[in-house]
Amino acid sequence: MPPPDGCSINAAPSDESKDSEPLIENHGVPPRCCSARFNLAILMFFGFCVVYGLRVNLSVAMVAMVNSTEPEPAGNASVFHACPMPSGRDDTNNTFQQPKGTPQYPWDSETQGWLLGAFFFGYLCTQIPGGYLAGHYGGSLFLGLGVLGTAVLTLFTPLAAQWGSYWLFALRALEGFGEGVTYPAMMAMWARWAPPLERSRLMTLAGSGGNFGAFLALPLTGYICQTLGWPTVFYLCGGAGCLWAVFWFMFVSDDPRTHRRISEEERDYIINSIGPQGTGHGWSIPVVSMLLSVPLWAIIITQMCSNWAYYTLLTSLPTYMDTILHFDLQSNGFLSALPYLGAWLVSTLSGVVADALIERRVFSITTVRKIFTTTGLMLPAAFLVAVGYSGCSHVLTVTFLTLSSTVGGSSAAGVYMNQIDIAPRYAGFLLGITNTFGTIPGVVAPIVTGYFTENHTLAGWRKVFWVAAGINIGGALVFLIFSSGKIQPWAETEEEKTETERRRSSSLSDHS
Hints:
Elements: H1 36-65, H2 109-123, H3 127-137, H4 140-154, H5 157-163, H6 165-179, H7 182-193, H8 199-207, H9 209-227, H10 230-251, H11 264-274, H12 287-291, H13 294-323, H14 329-359, H15 365-388, H16 394-408, H17 418-422, H18 427-452, H19 458-482, H20 494-511
Helix pairs in contact: 1-4, 1-8, 1-9, 1-10, 1-13, 2-6, 2-18, 3-7, 3-18, 4-6, 4-7, 4-10, 5-6, 7-18, 8-14, 9-10, 9-14, 13-14, 13-18, 13-19, 14-15, 14-16, 15-16, 15-19
């Protein structure tokens, strides 16, 4: 319900307390369990499970799709192994057994890097327009069609690979084009659905589906490749996306006002707690003010830095497990998935803790976002450096990689939801902007990794981990210094601006 003075909890602070953040009250909260907003989070969770399954399946399948992840030796030169081959596996046993007739392709390390990065070329193109349109019309249609379109295209992956690497590159770029609208659409929906005191837990629950999807997809992809052949991976992932879309379009609504099964109590609670910010932003947006906003640029830079390490592991970890540590394909998928299990657990927990800290006024919104972001970038950087010096130790490498991604999950309650703090009405559009910049590492990191690791040496991979760690630390420092959790003046509605003027006039009258 609204605070006693009649202002929504998203209202901008008055001039009397410029350095304070909006007053947040918590009156008459309807049950969360089985509520419409919680059900929305669960559906989004499974949606992003599918999204990340569609995104990462190629990372593991690539190991099975190529004849060898080793470069062809020149002349009579022998292939150099950074780490000794395990007993029972040697140079002649460097391919994976596939069902009879399963095709394989002679793609070198550089080609694989381009194919793994192809998705993000398309992903870059639809972030901003997707966020803009979702903020105006509502996000359910764009999120649903984004997943469905990507799923349908995934079904054609084996055919594109058969036609050649250029066709596969184009198909993956098209998949990214379709999937680019999903996260901005999610943010636009939560701007209308998530009460401020529940933003962290609802959004981290929904978004953690990405980590859980990666956790499931990586080992399952390895198992399916060995038992049914790599083409089956893309048929199953594509089918799962189509099935999810059916449930999404049946049960989801853009706005609590139009939801068919929401209780009146819950609808009023959501609408009143969000206030004027829970409406579409119309066609006009303050682009110039956004470009000059320091807190927004802090989010952009920090997401770019954080995503470099994330996408490096997401796209290249299976290759590292194969070419350096020589895990078999099934073990490769399982061990590559462990970091995402930890990240899923920590990101979900961090949302609950962040909401509790804000609700009990232990820290301000700004401080909470900085704590979780700094923790989620600094600690993973240290563990990434440790990976580079773990040598050929399987136990240490897997342990440090898992710890790095696990503690990195805490940033889900930090920078990754800061857009909705500073401008709820424009959250979808802002996420489109920040995710566009944040996707650049998804394009560049696999290519850089391919160049660094062309000879598959430990020294080359050590450079990969050092670069990722250094970029992480830089992002943490930027966010620590320049970020904010306050609604920015350019994001206020006309109603809020009028209220601010009324308070200012009242304050001047009291002091005259």
